[in-house]
Amino acid sequence: MSNVLTASQAIQAKARRREMLAAWTPRLAIAPGAFASLVYVFGFTLWTLYISVSNSTMLPTYQFVGLKPYFDLWSNERWKIAYGNLFYFSAFYVAVSLAVGLGLAIAIDQRVRGEAVWRTIFLYPLAVSFVVTGTVWSWLYSPDAGIEFLVRSLGWHDFTFRLTTNRYTAIYAIIATGIWQSSGFAMALFLAGLRSVDPDLVKAAQIDGAGPARIYRKVILPSIAPIFVAVAVVLLQFAIKTFDLVVALTHGGPGISTTFPATYVYDLMFQRGEIAVGAAAAIMMLAALAVVLVPYTLWTVWRSRREAGHG
Amino acid sequence: MVDATFDLALDSQARGESLRYAMRRIAIYSFLGVFALIYLLPLFVVVANSFRQLPEIAQNGLIALPHSFSLSAWPKAWAHYCVAGTCEGIKRNFFNSLYMTIPATIVSTLIGAMNGYVLSKWRFPGSETLFVCIVLGVFMPGQIALLPWAYILGALHLSNSVYGLILVHIIQGLSFTTLFCRNYYINIPDDLIKAARIDGAGFWRIFFKIVLPLSPPILIVTVIWQFTGIWNEFLFGLVFTGGTQQPITVALVALATSQMNAHPYDVASAAVMIGAVPPLLIYLFGGKYFVRGLTQGAIK
Amino acid sequence: MLTIKAALAGAVVGALATTAALAEPKTNLLSQWSEGSDAAAIAKLGEMFTAAGGKWEQTSIAGHTANTLAKLRADVVAGNAPPAVQLKGPEIAEWNATGMTANLDDLANKEGWDKVVAPELLPVMKPTGHWVAAPMNIHRINWIWGSTKAMEQAGIKSLPKTWTEFNADCDKAVAAHLICIAHFSQDWTDATTFEVVVYGQNIDLFRKAFVEGDTNAMRSPDMVKALKQFRLMVSKYMDPGIAGRDYDTATSMIAKGQAAFMIMGDWQIGIFTAAGLKPGADYECAQAPTDWGKPGFILNSDSVVFFKQKDPDYVEGQTLLAHLIMSPKFQTVFNQAKGSIPARLDIDLKDFNPCQQMSQKDLQASIADGTLVRSMAHNMTILQKYRGAILDTVTSFVNNPKMTPEEAASAMADAVDAQK
C-alpha cells in the first residue's frame, strides 16, 4: 500500500519539478543577457543622472550639489545652439530620409530593370562609417578642391556651392550627408513593404477606377504604415547619436553653429574637465528622446490593448 | 477578326498610352539616375583618388577625371605609411578590427537570438516590459556610456584590451539583436511551438530543432547590422584599446584629419577603401537577405 | 636548521633584490602625435628609448585633443593610468591635484633641471613646487610669416613691425589682388590670431584677460579696440573661404604667393620645411606686430606627465624617459624637426633654422624685458572651461560678420562668468 502511494507521489513530485524547470529555463536562459542589458541601460543612465547633480569636474566625484550643473549648462550659448540643432536636424533628417527612401522605393517598384544594381547603389552608404562619410563629403563640399572647384573648372566661374562655410547653411550640409547615408535603409524597407502589399486590395482599387496616385495614397501607403514607424525609430537613434558625422564634416563649425549635444557632452566631459555639466547635458539629450519615445510607447500599448479588446 | 478590329480602334489611344508610358519610364529612370549619381559620387572620388598621384590631386582638385595613375598609394596605406604610432601602414589595425568584430558579432547575435526566442515564445509576467527595457539601449549615446564602461572594465581588469572592447560591443549590441530577433520570431506561428511541446519537446529542443532552422534571414540581418556597426565604430575602439591594438577606424581618422600636416589624399583614399571593404562585401553579398529579413522583422 | 632557514630567506631576499635591479624599463606614451612630422619626431624619442635598453610602446590618438584626454580619463577611471602622457599648461596642475602624478624631484635635482629650464615654465612643470612634468620644447606663437613671392608682387619690402604698418601693408596686398592673410578658421586658429593681436596691442590687457581670466578686462574698451582690429583683418584681409579650409591649403597659399602673410606659431617652420620651402627664398619670418616696440614672446610648451605606477618596469621606464626627454640630444633632434626651440636654455642652436635661432634670441630678450607671457589659445594659462568659453566666442565672432566688437567683448566676458 505505502509503496504505491510513495511511487505516485514520487511521479507527481518529478512532474512538478519538470514543470518548474520548464517554467524557469527560459528565464534562466535570458537572465545573463537581460541583466547585462539592464545594467547598461538603467545602471549607466542612473549613474549619469547622479553625476549630473554632483560636483564632478576632472574625474567623477560624488558630492551632491543639486541642480547647479543644469543652470551652468543652460547659461551656455553653445548648449542652446546644440540643443536646437538636435531637434532641427532630427526632424529634417528623419522626414526627408523617409521621403527620399519612399520615393526611391516606389521608383524601383515600377518594374525597373537592374533592380539589384539600383538597390546596391542606394544601400552601400550604410556600410560606410560616419567618420569616413563626413570626411569624404567634407572634401566634396570644400570650395577649394571639391564640387565648387569642379564646376568652376568646367567653365562656370561664378558657381558657388559653399554649404559648409556659411554658418546658416552648414547644418543643411550635415542633414544632406546624413540623408545620403541612411535613406538607402529606408528605401530597402519600403521596397520590401511595397512588394508585400496585398495585390487583391490594389486590384480592387483599380477596378473601382482609381488612378495610380490615388491607389498609392489610399491603399498602398496605409498598408505599409508600420514600416514608416520602424524606419523612423532607427533613423531617430542615428540622429540622437550624431557625433562622428559632425566632427568629421564641420568640426562643429563654422564657429559653433553646427555644434550638437553629443559633441558638446564629449567636449565638456573630456576636454574641459566639466563632467557634472557634461552629465547634465547628457540627461537633457535623453530627455529630448523621452519626449518622442514616451508618447510613442503609450500609443503602441494603447493600440495593442485596443486590438486585443477587439479580439 | 474581332481582335484585329479591337486593336485598330485602340491604336491611336494605344500610341498615346505608350507615349505616356515611355515618358513615365524616362522620368523614373532619370529620377533614379540622378540619385544614383549623387550616391556614387563619393565612391568614385575615393576610388579615383586612391589611384592618382598626390601632386596631381592637389593641382586638379579632388573631383576630377584622373590625369595620373599610380598604384603606390595602396601598398603604402597597407604596409608602409607612418600612422598611429608605427610605420607599418594600417594592416595591423585592419586585423585588430577583424579580431574584435567577428567574435562580438557572433556572440551578440546568438545571445540576441536566445533573447528573442524567450521573449516571443516563452512569455512570462513582465517579459514585455523587459523587452522594451532592453530595446531602449539602442538610443544610448556613446558619450554617456564611456566612463561607466571604464569603471566596469577596470574592475574586470579588461581595460586596454581587445577582450574588454568585445565585451562592450556585445552588451551594447544586445539591444539591437534582441529587437530584430524577437520581432522576427513573433511571426513564427505559436501553434508550431505548441505542437512541439505536446510532442514532449523542451525549451532547448524547440530552439535548436524548430526556431534556429527558421532563423537564417534574421540572423543574416543581425550579423550584417552588428558587423557594420562594430567595424565602423570609432569612440570606444579608440578609448578602450591602446598601443598597437587600435582598430582601423582610429588609423583612418589619423590619416584623414591630419591637423598640421599635408593631407595625404591618395593614401587616405586607399586606406578608406581598404577599411570599407569588409562591410561593403557583406552588404554586397547579404543585401537581398538584409531586405528580406528586416521586413519580416519590422512589420509588426 | 637555523642556517638552512637563514640561507633560504637570504636566497629569497636576494632573488627579489635582483629582480628589482633587473627591472626592464618600459613605457607607453599616450599622445596626440599620431602622424606626419609629429609622429616622426616622437619616433626619435622611441629610438633613443630603445637604444638605452628600454621597451618602447606608444598610444597615439588621432583627431582632436579631446580624444587623447578621453582616453586618459577612461584609463584613470579604470585604475590603469598610463605611465606617460602628453599634457600641458593648467592641466598639469589639475591632474597633480588628483594626487595620481609621479614625483620627478630626485631626477630633476640630480640633473639640475631648475637651472636650465626657462623660468616661465617652472611654475607650470612644478605646480606645487615638485617636478611632475618634463618639458619637451618651447613654441613661440607670435610669429608672422610672409610669402616672398606675394610680398614682392605687392611691393611690401619687409614684414610689418606695428599694427599700423600691418594694415598699410595689407592694403597694398589687397590692391595687388592678393589675399593678405592666409587663414583657416578653427577654434584654435582663430584664437591664436586674436591673442597675437591682443598681445601686440597691449601686454597688460593680455595678462589681465588671458592669463588671469579677469572678465572686467574682457569688457574693457581696450578689448573692444583689439576686436575692432580683428574685425578689420577678418572682413578685409582674409577671404571668405576661411571656414572649412584646411591647414595645408592655407600653407600652400603662402607657398604659391596667393596670400601675403600668415599668423601662426613656430611649428609652421616644420610644415614649410616638409613642403620643401626655404627661409628667405620662399618665406620670411618675423615677430608678429607689436605697438610697444620691444622683443615679445608668447610661449607654448609640450610636456610629458608621469602617473604613479605599480609595475616596477614602468617606474624604471618613467625615470629613463624623463631623463631622455631632458637630454640635450633629444631636445636638439626633436625641436629641429618640429620648428620649436629646446626647453633647455643651454643648447646651441647652430644647426637650426634661422627663424628658430631668432626665436631663442627673442626669448632671452623677452625674459630680460619682462614681456614674456604664456599662450591662452594653446592652453597654457587659464582652465579649459574658461578657455573653451573664450574660444567659442572668438570663433563665433570670426564667422558671424554681424557680431560687433562691443557685442563680442561682452559675450566673451559673459561666457567666462557663466563658468565661474
Protein architecture, described:
The complex is a heterotrimer of chains A (311), B (300) and C (420). By secondary structure, chain A is mostly helical. Chain A has helices spanning 2-51, 68-74, 77-109, 115-123, 130-141, 147-153, 170-195, 199-207, 212-223, 225-240, 244-249, 261-271, 275-310. Chain A is flat and about 105 Å long. The mean pLDDT of chain A is 85. Chain B is an all-alpha fold and 300 residues long. Chain B has 2 domains: 2-72, no CATH class; 78-298, MetI-like fold (Orthogonal Bundle), CATH 1.10.3720. Chain B has helices at 2-50, 54-60, 73-80, 91-121, 127-135, 142-155, 162-185, 190-198, 203-211, 216-231, 235-239, 248-256, 265-298. In chain B, helix 4 (91-121) crosses helix 10 and helix 12 (248-256) crosses helix 13 (265-298). Chain C is 54% helix and 12% strand. Chain C is built from 20 helices and 12 strands. Chain C has helices spanning 2-21, 36-51, 65-77, 90-97, 105-111, 113-116, 122-125, 148-154, 163-175, 187-201, 203-211, 215-219, 221-237, 247-256, 267-274, 312-325, 328-338, 354-369, 384-399, 405-418, and strands spanning 26-31, 55-60, 84-87, 133-135, 139-140, 143-147, 179-181, 259-263, 283-287, 297-300, 303-306, 372-374. Chain B binds chain C through residues 58, 82-85, 87, 146-147, 149-151, 153-155, 159-160, 235, 238-240, 242-244, 246, 250-251, 253-255, 257-263, and chain C through 28, 30, 34-40, 43, 57-63, 67, 70-71, 73-75, 77-80, 82, 246-248, 251-252, 267, 271, 274-275.
